[in-house]
């Protein structure tokens, strides 16, 4: 399964200010509640840093690549109009870039997603979209867009449901 | 501790008489010893008595399961009124919330099987039409095309009919909004079950079947403390977690982030942000129960 990438638990602490409007999600003491990034972005094992292979800038022409077939095979994110270097930075493959050209690290990929999905981004920043765990009144762990959505095929994949409850007649007296 | 919590005042004479008669009548009907029933419910206890009752409960539960069990009595946090949000445009009906709830809250596993969350499968074409809801759907993968899913659990009503009908005052609403049951005070008459319009209350009609190795030993007196036979139970928003600032277990288990929880009195809380930004509705609004559980569509 393409999205069964390993999740390395690191718990990288990020400043709450990065994510939140001032005052959002207050802690128990009235100060801003600390937010912790759940997990680093999920990479295919062994693939990061990308500069292991990509040192200088490559050919920027849009084309089918001879490598990364797993990504190309499942790529379903406005695939008609977009390709790798729309998001991955050509000069520094270890980072992404916004449409303005500004570079962003993988840990801040939500800024890239938010360029097109502004409504979801706004909801996510205040905790309406997405998932958080931890304290409702204090320190929280948040999930990046890419912790739940495969950026190359973002639609949420169907799941096998947990077992149904017993019907009353199956429980017996 | 607040007025409604432990240590909060006695009964009026009228309440006392009413309760006394109800207790005697219920005792006669259920065959219990009257002495067992006339005493004090948890919320009427003094602080010292609470400590004693908690210690006794922990001792008994530890003996019952042959492993250490803690029984917490944490009261409501000041300035907190809990609200819950469920995003119907996100829920995919995977029942992970049900599984997490069972693991956390120590309900009987089978005969009776008790689950506080019921996930309903509904037809997109019909909308929220509970007469055509199916809680027993089976599938290789969800969401199934043409369907949407609506989890239902205790709505922690502001005007809870279940509380109103209890003849012995064994169930009440706490100042933080949680409707609780004192399992040592419940006489098992099941009036509350017929009064609840949401099917949120469940009855232990046999000795609960909870294997010791599946027990969650971290319990609250008014929440996931293992129940005896013959009492009613229901969702408490995970009182044992939320009174210590943690999210309910179902919120953390939901893989799509459909479940939101927080303090309705804090304008920056996730639940208040939901209410300010999204279309929110409550289930069976026309009944006037005023749930503190809000459904919404985030799309
Ligand atoms: S949903 Fe049912 S059990 Fe829960 S508070 Fe309302 S009436 Fe009572
Ligand atoms: S875990 Fe979330 S998505 Fe799954 S049934 Fe429960 S609320 Fe719906």
UniProtKB/TrEMBL annotation, chain A:
Protein's recorded name: Cytochrome c7-like domain-containing protein
InterPro entries in the cross-refs: Multihaem_cyt_sf
SUPFAM superfamilies reported for this sequence: Multiheme cytochromes
UniProtKB/TrEMBL annotation, chain B:
Q: Which residues form the 4Fe-4S ferredoxin-type domain?
A: 82-112, 145-176, 177-206
Xref: CDD domains? PsrB (cd10551)
Gene3D superfamilies for this protein: 3.30.70.20
Q: Which UniProt keywords apply?
A: 4Fe-4S, Iron, Iron-sulfur, Metal-binding
How far does the signal peptide extend, from start to end residue?
Answer: none
The protein in question is named 4Fe-4S ferredoxin-type domain-containing protein
Organism annotation: Anaeromyxobacter paludicola
């Amino acid at each position: 399964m393409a999205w069964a990438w390993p999740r390395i638990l690191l718990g990288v602490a990020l400043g709450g200010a990065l994510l939140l409007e001032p005052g959002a999600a207050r802690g128990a003491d009235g100060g801003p509640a600390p937010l912790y990034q759940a997990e680093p972005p999920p990479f295919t094992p062994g693939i990061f840093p990308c500069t292991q292979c990509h040192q200088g800038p490559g050919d920027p022409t849009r084309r089918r690549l001879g490598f990364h077939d797993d990504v190309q095979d499942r790529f379903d994110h406005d695939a008609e109009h977009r390709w790798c270097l729309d998001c991955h930075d050509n000069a520094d493959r270890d980072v992404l870039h916004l449409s303005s050209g500004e570079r962003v690290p993988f840990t801040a990929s939500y800024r890239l997603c938010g360029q097109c999905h502004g409504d979801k981004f706004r909801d996510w920043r205040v905790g309406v979209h997405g998932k958080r765990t931890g304290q409702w009144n204090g320190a929280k762990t948040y999930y990046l867009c890419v912790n739940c959505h495969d950026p190359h095929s973002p639609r949420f994949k169907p799941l096998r449901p947990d077992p149904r409850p017993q019907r009353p007649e199956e429980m017996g007296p | 501790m607040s007025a409604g919590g432990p240590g909060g005042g006695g009964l009026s004479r009228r309440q006392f008489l009413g309760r006394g008669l109800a207790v005697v009548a219920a005792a006669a009907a259920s065959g219990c010893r009257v002495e067992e029933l006339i005493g004090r419910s948890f919320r009427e206890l003094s602080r010292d008595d609470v400590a004693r009752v908690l210690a006794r409960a922990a001792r008994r539960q530890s003996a019952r399961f042959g492993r250490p069990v803690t029984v917490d009595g944490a009261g409501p946090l000041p300035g907190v009124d809990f609200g819950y949000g469920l995003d119907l445009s996100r829920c995919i009906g995977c029942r992970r919330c049900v599984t997490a709830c069972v693991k956390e809250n120590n309900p009987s596993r089978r005969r009776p099987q008790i689950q506080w969350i019921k996930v309903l499968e509904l037809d997109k074409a019909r909308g929220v039409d509970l007469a055509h809801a199916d809680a027993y759907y089976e599938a290789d993968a969800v969401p199934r095309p043409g369907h949407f899913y609506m989890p239902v659990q205790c709505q922690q009503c502001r005007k809870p009919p279940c509380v109103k009908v209890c003849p012995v005052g064994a169930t009440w609403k706490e100042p933080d909004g949680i409707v609780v049951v004192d399992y040592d005070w419940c006489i098992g008459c099941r009036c509350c079950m017929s009064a609840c319009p949401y099917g949120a209350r469940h009855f232990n009609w046999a000795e609960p079947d909870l294997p010791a190795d599946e027990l969650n030993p971290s319990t609250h007196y008014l929440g996931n403390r293992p129940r005896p036979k013959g009492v009613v139970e229901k969702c408490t928003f995970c009182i044992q977690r939320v009174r210590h600032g943690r999210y309910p277990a179902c919120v953390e288990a939901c893989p799509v982030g459909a479940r939101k929880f927080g303090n309705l009195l804090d304008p920056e809380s996730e639940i208040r942000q939901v209410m300010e930004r999204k279309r929110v509705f409550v289930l069976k609004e026309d009944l006037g129960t005023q749930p503190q559980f809000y459904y919404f569509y985030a799309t």
